[in-house]
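=== RUN LOG ===
request id: a7f3
mode: sequence -> structure
chains: 1
length: 397
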Amino acid sequence: MPLRLPAVRGAPPRRGPRRRAFLVAAAALLAPALTRPLAARAIGSASLAQDESAVRLTLAVAEPVVFRLFTLDNPLRLVIDIEGAPWRAGAPPAGVGPVTRIRAALNRPGVTRVVLDLSEPVTVRRAALEPDGSALVVELAPAPRAVFLREERASDPLPRPPTPPERPLIVLDPGHGGRDPGAIGASGTQEKRVALAAALELRRILEASGRYRVAMTRTRDVFVPLAERVRFAQTRNAALFLSIHADALDDASVRGASVYTLAEHASDAIAERIARNENRADRFAGPSFTGVTPEVARILISLVRRETLNGSARMARHAVASLRREVTMLPNSHRFAGFVVLKAPDVPSVLIEMGFMSSRADEALLRRADHRRKLAAAMAEAVQRYAEEAVPVRAAG
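=== RESULT ===
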């Protein structure tokens, strides 16, 4: 069925002196959760030069560092992960030759990622520390794509114990649970059960890769209030929050998976209805439940809105692309609404609707373990693609 998406409206709230004072106080409270410890050594400067045969990137460091270099395709990128050396070189140098842009960011605690966006494939002629350990030098030259895709290098071991690898934490949030069954299909299938089954399968795939730590807001049939799900991810400094659902609509003909990110105004009527259904879960919490007020939540979200929402949008884009190759998708597959579970101000968050329990076709598929494995594999692929992307903290040009 054709769907029209109304424009999202809404201007930023006016901020008087009291509002500004509150923002400063809130920022101070949030600071410990939004910062990561940085080592004493640092990347103090960066330069990019080209001669007749090569392009040379020079990163000045205070002392020898451990690094890993690898390539990514579509688009072409050269990635350098450097341990224990935060980027303090200001704006990266402008691109030259095949290097169109350089980006730098804290990829995970203790690891700085430098990404070279490329206009053509290259080979790494040299990637090594200077003899005195004062700089990391990477020299690039044009090469066939097949050579480019095989590039992977690492520094020689330094005479000190290596920093143990720190894996990002992915929090999985199976929707509903306990006295809240969620949507119920025509055949009696409960949303809470298929959401948990799919999340457990996704956890198995992610943990088997060895690249992630995984935590779940629930691993059995229990009720968890919405705000507690958000706090669960925040207090663990999660790198990503994935909430997994399978809602229902009045129209049984609507079917397909979809991906949602946070917005103050819903992108369309279906998104608004789904958000209203999912947010209603807290009616099961009882009188003892207390959550963050809407006003405080909005102010806190505004402090880090751009960084977090940009990350959420990137994850949503990868989720839509991966799911589309495997399952039927709802038209306009990336949608926006005010889901409570997506309101962590400092954790990129995405809600995935695997299908509609109101659709007999979707319900029948979601009851099948092989279909849930297909969904979980697609979600795991999206997580991997998201993790490979460096967050652009600064970019030249």
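=== NOTES ===
The two ends are 43 Å apart (CA to CA).
DSSP finds nine helices and 16 strands in the chain.
=== END ===
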